[in-house]
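WARN retry 2 of 3 for item q-0093 after timeout on previous attempt; input resubmitted unchanged.
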Amino acid sequence: MEQKRYAGILLAAAGVAAAFVVTIETGYRVTRTPGSPISDVLYFTSIVALALLIAMAVRSWWLPGTGTADFTRAPEAHDAEPRRPAETPTDRFSDVRRHVQSLAQVIDAPDDLLPTFGRSEQNGRPHIEIDGESYHYVLAERGQEYERYSTSSLDDLMYRVLRDIAFSMSASLARPQRKPGEDFRREMFKQQVMLLDRLKPEWAARCEAEHREVLASHPFVDER
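OK item q-0093 returned
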């Protein structure tokens, strides 16, 4: 675009020089007398300027190093690599939903244990929010928010979601395995860790570490 603007300016100047030449030449022919020294200087100067300006204007249209004009060249705006469309929150919710559903299928988790996405049912069921680069795992009921876990890591979010799903599943899985007089948490914790180990051993180890922290303050209480 700059080359075209420059060429336009040069051509406009060439037009002015051409007007001088035509005006002086017309004066010569009408009067049939030689011009004054000043008019002669203007005449020949205008001719030289006209030739130079036309040459410079034509040159400005030529591509460097080729010697030929590129009439097939696309506009500069098309030279830039097309921008990829910005990822929308809807796209990210779809990605997170696919991750959750894929992992939930591995442990046969029922759909009603999965969180909702972008909205809350306000009945204690967790939901996921996305804000910029952050994920939020939220528990709310009847307009009251009880818990909010925020992270920029998708892996952390998946762990938190699947940890809670595995815990909810562990209650029914532990019931047939529970021994009389045993603290119900023993088998629940065990079943929860086993479910997470099917998804990711690192998650199982992380969950066991959290269990140890809980038990440090609230140890098992078995009936004798």
